[in-house]
Sequence to fold (585 residues):
Amino acid sequence: MKHNPKINNKEAVRIIAVGVILMLVLFFSSDILNLFTISPTQAAAISLRGTSKIGSASNGRDVTLTFDTGGNAPQTGDVVFLWGGRGNSSDAQAWGPITTGYTAIATIDSTGPKFGVWYKVMGGTPDTQVQGEGGGSTSHGVVYGAYVIDGSTLDLAIFDQTAVSTGELSSWVPDGPAITTQTAGAWVITHAANSTNDASRGTVTNYTLFTGASVNEPDDFNSESAYRTIASPGTEDPPAWSAWSAGIGGAITIALKPKNDSPALVIDNPPAGNTNVAEGANYSIQYDLSDGDSVATVDFYYDTNNDGVGGTAIAACQDQVEGTNATCSFNTNILTVSTAYYIYGVASDGVNPNVTTVSSGTITVNDAPALTVTQPDGISDTIAQDASYNITYSLSDSDNVVTVAFYYDTNNSGLDGNTISGACAIAAEGTNSTCTWNTTSVTPGSYYIYGITSDGMTQVNAYSSGTVTINSRPTLSVSQPDGTSDTIAQDASYNIAYSLSDPDNVVTAAFYYDTNNSGLDGTTITGACATAVEGTTTCSWDTTGITPGLYYVYGKTNDGTNPQVSAYSPGQITINSRPTISVSQ
Fold:
C-alpha cells in the first residue's frame, strides 16, 4: 500500500480516534440510545409477594410448592404464576398444575420437555400451596417453580404483551423469545426448559433469576426463569442464559402490566359548611387533580345531594386539566337561588374506572333583595315646605332579613343624594309599606327618592319613577307703616309698603288694618291692597270711611300648598280726624 503524503501523523491519530469512537458507538448503541431515551411516566412498580418457590422430583413424582406465611403469604387479588413441567418420553401422561383454578398462558409439548406457564388470581381464601403434575413415569424428571405477584401492583388486565412469545424446540441454549410490551414499567419474564441435566445454567444479562432446578433421569428436565422491569414500551428480547447447555427445549416469555394509578381528585372549594354566593356572580371551583402515570381530566357537576351521581353538568367546567389549586369558574345564574348545591367532579384517565369526588360543603346562591319605590310617582306629589311625606315601597328577601335606607336626589341616577333620617333610614320589609319623611330643613325643590338595601351579598337600589315637590312658602313683610311720619288726614290715601315673593308660585297678598298687632282679626282693606302683587312695592289704601284712629296694617298670603303666611307692620298709621267748625248765633 502506498503511503499518502498528505496525511501527517496528527491527522492519522485523529482518524484512528474517530474510528474507535464509531466502533464503540456501534457496539454499545442500544445502551447509549437508552441513556438518551425519555421514558414515559412510570406506573406503580410491580412487586413480588414473598419469595419465589422451586421444587423438583424424579421418577415422575408430583411437586408441591408451599408459599410463605404471614405477611408474605398470598393475599386476595394476588396472582400466582406456576411454571415448569417434566421430561418427555413421547407419552401421554399428565403434566401441569394439579391445583385447580389455574389458567394456561402457554405450553410447549416437545419431544424433549413438556413445559408451560400457568396463572391463578387468588380469591377470598388464597391458596397456601400449589402442586405440579409429574406424570408418574419412573423416567420423568420433574421441575416446577412458582412466584406470587402483589395484586395491588398489577393492572386488572394482568398481561401487557400483544401476544405470548414461545421459543424454538430444537437443540439450543435456552434463549427467551422477544416480546412487545405496551406500558412503561412492565415486567418481562422469560421461562425456559430443556432436556439436559445442567445445574450450571448461568445468568441472563440484566435479568433477575428465579431459582431453577435440574433433574437427572432418563428423561432429563431442566427449567429456570428470569425477569426484568422494562422502562419504556417496545420490543424486549431477553438474552440467552450464559452457561446453559444446549438441548431440546423451549422458552415462554410473558409481560405483566403494572397497575395504572387512578386519578387523585380533591375539591378544595366549596369548603366544608355552606358558602353563600351573590346572585349572578361567578364562582370558582378550586381543585387538585393529579395522575402519576396518565393524563387525567375532570368534569364538574352540581347537585342537591352528595351521592356524586345524576347531577347537572357545569358546561364551563368540563375537561378540566390536572393541577394543584387549579380553578374553574362558572356563572351561578345556572343555579336556583336559595338552594344548597354540592359540587362534584368525575376524573378520568382513560384507563381506570372514573374517580368521583364530592365537595365537603355546599354553595347557595343568595336570593337578592327585591326593592321598588312606588311613591312618589310625580302625580299629586307636591307638599308644603317642612311638611312630612309618606314614601311608599315594597321590599322583600326570601332568605335574609333586610332593611332599606332612603335618600332624596335631584336626579334619578348616580345614587349621590342625601340621607333621609328617621324611620326611612331603616325601613323594614313589606309590600306597599310606607315610611314618613320629615322634610323640615330640606331645601324646597323636586326630588327623586331612592332606596338602597343589602343582604350582605348583593346591594340592590331603586329610584322612584317620579318626584316629590317640596313647595316653598311665600315670604311677606310689611315695612310701612312703621309709626314714623305715618299720620294722614281723614279719608286720605296711604301707601302700604311691603315685600312679597314666592319662588315656585304666583301669589298675591291681602291687607288688613287692625287696632293691635296680633290676632289677625282686623278689617279688610279693599281695592289694590286686597290683591297686592309680588315684589318689593306699595299698594294704595283709600281710607275713606275709616274711623280715624291708630291702626296696624297686616297682610296675608297663601300659595295653595303651604300654610297661610301673614305679617304685621312694625308700626301704626294715624288717621287724623278732620277739624269740626261750629257757628254759634
